[in-house]
Amino acid sequence: MTSAEHARLMRANQANWDARTPVHVTSRFYGLDEDLDPERWFAAFEWEDLGELSGRDVLHLQCHLGTETLALARRGARAVGLDFSAASVTAARDLAAKSGLDVTYVQANVYDAVTALEGRRFDVVYTGKGALCYLPDLDRWADVVARLLRPGGRLYVVEFHPLLNALGPKPGPDEGPELLLRHDYLGGSGPVHRDATYTYTDGPAVEGATDSYEWMHGLGEVVNALTDAGMGVRRLRESDELPWPRWSRMIRTDSGWWRLPEPRIPLLYSLLAVR
After folding, report:
1. How far apart (Å, rounded) are the C-alpha atoms in residues 85 and 208?
2. What is the per-residue pLDDT for 165?
3. Residues in contact with 11: Cβ distance below 8 Å, sequence separation at least 6, in sequence order
């Protein structure tokens, strides 16, 4: 697939996320009209891996509504969020203003981040939880991340495990409720077209742009893209918990997150890399 075709599909995704945003802003899933606790989207090990953030320049790529960006700011970071959706950036700015936190938000495609941020460098780049699947070219992404980090700066990815993405969320015709491998674990087969009329949150149907395209990326692809960009991987974790119950059979744990009954399988992973 050509770079022009990639750009066309990413524009379709951008339109879809613009259309999703009003649904997400009013959803119970995000709960923005309640007492907002942005740290509920973070596992305890994330803060351990991120370390001290006070006074650090931290960039959150593909930030959507900026809920996690707010948590980074609450930890004392000079936080910046970047997203390609104008509607998401507007909502994120409104949310930050209501929270009384000083966060800068920039609208740009992640591949254009170096230019959009005018060459600014960061101590930490944070991304994940449904971000990398919208990027067709991880080598290009890794190069952008390396250029955004100061020497010694850290990238922290906390992303849904490719095994999670490979499991089918709904049974097919004449099938039971068992979770089956329905999609590729590894990348290379091109984009997966999805009907995003309804998104992962509660709420009404998305109006307008309902086409969405995702690319599968195995762990090896992520690691190799970063090492090829000159970054060193320092830690890789796999977790069997998610911050919300994706499937009805999931069990709430002492952490407040959710996991599947036995056997344990990875649903989330985190990767710490250093430039």
Report:
1. 15
2. 85
3. none
- Cα–Cα distance measured from residue 111 to residue 140, given in angstroms and rounded to the nearest whole number: 7
Q: Inform me whether the pLDDT recorded for 263 exceeds 70.
A: yes
In this prediction, residue 178 carries a pLDDT of: 74
| Residue 149 clears pLDDT 90, i.e. is over it | yes
Residue with tokens 């952490």: 255
**Nearest partner of 61 among 93, 94, 107, 23, judged by Cα:** 107
Q: How confident is the model at residue 219 (pLDDT cuts 50, 70, 90)?
A: very high
CA atoms lying within 13 Å on the CB side of residue 94: 13
The number of beta carbons lying within 10 Å of the beta carbon of residue 3 is: 11
Q: Work out the mean pLDDT of the chain and round it to a whole number.
A: 92
Query: Whole-structure pTM over 0.85, yes or no?
Result: yes
Secondary structure string (H, E, C) spanning 35-77? CCCHHHHCCHHHHHHHCCCCCCEEEEECCCCCHHHHHHHHCCC
**Paired strand residues for 81:** 60, 105
Return the ∠ at Cα 98 (arms to 126 and 154), rounded to 5°: 10
